[in-house]
Amino acid sequence: MTQLPINHRGDAGPPVPRARWRRLLGPLARIPTPIIFAGSVALALLVLWNQGALRDALAAIADADPNALLLAAPVYVGSLALLSFRWHALVLMAQGKSDLPKAAEAFLTSVVINYAAPIGLAVPSRAALTKRALGLDAQATGTIAIWEIGMDVAVLGAGTVLWLVLADGSPAAVRSELAESAEIFTIGAVGLVAVTLAAGFWLLKSAARRDRVLPVARRILLSPSARPGAAVLALVTTVVYWVIQGFVLALLLRSLDVNASFEFVLGLTSLPILVGMLSPVPGGAVVREALMYVVARLADVPGDAVIAAAVIYRFALFAAIPLLYVVARWWIARRREPAALQIVEPRRR
């Protein structure tokens, strides 16, 4: 006897057709992650070559001290491994279980996608890849995406405040630079406000949507209180990661014969990255580089050397990520059986 499928009410009934967008994206969702990774790397390298970034990086490396570069290389690779672990900790915070090599594979692939794509797709792509690899639900996917950005903004914001306090003349210089870019920020802010108001009106207009969305949003925002251990682990990892990035940039600057003081490195690794992250301009282009020049000018450092260090820093990503990706894939393939997912129980209130 043929058994009818169960509809959303739990009764036997005709099959419910899938949404058209799900049918269209179905074949894409079945593409293996290694193929996505390899294709994204090839596309990203092609984009960087057409932009001239690879030639600039090779020229900057040729002028740098090789000893300092050799010292910075393993530190940089280790920091990216730490960032992959941070993603694993966020998954633990979101749903209480994770698989480190699969989480790392999804994270590393998404970073390459972000460089290959014309707009920033790192957060949504890594959330989608992690959802596929580890079976996240919609709430867990939103939790890790939102809290990754939130933790980075919190740490970089604290670093920015500290730099503004320590660096002489920094508040006035920053105000002047941001005033010159005010038109860009105004247009972006107006667009963001318009989108937010339209989304809020659409959400609040329907009681059914409010009842469905607001509890989920509340759980996402309060998720660190459910598993505080995993949340603290993710936050501490974020702090350590950005401290290491400052150390790596200091080594790159020294390889170019630049005296990298604490205030200078703190300014480079906080304000420009933070503004670029929050900028309405995709990738923070123009604004981020302009603020790097502001930081360099206050430290009496040639701006060209700072840009050269940033170019080497960007190029190092494509040397480190394939190495870490191979390690993650080897770890996954080496296991005879899928490892049991680590469980982090929520705190009982």
TrEMBL record:
The keyword Metal-binding does not apply. It is a multi-pass membrane protein. Coiled coil: none annotated. The keyword Nucleotide-binding does not apply. GO terms for cellular component: plasma membrane. InterPro entries: L-PG_synthase/AglD. Pfam families: LPG_synthase_TM. The chain crosses the membrane at residues 28-49, 69-94, 106-124, 144-166, 178-204, 230-252, 264-285, 305-328. It is found in: Cell membrane. Keywords: Cell membrane, Membrane, Transmembrane, Transmembrane helix. This is Uncharacterized protein. The lineage of its organism: Bacteria, Pseudomonadati, Thermomicrobiota, Thermomicrobia, Thermomicrobiales.
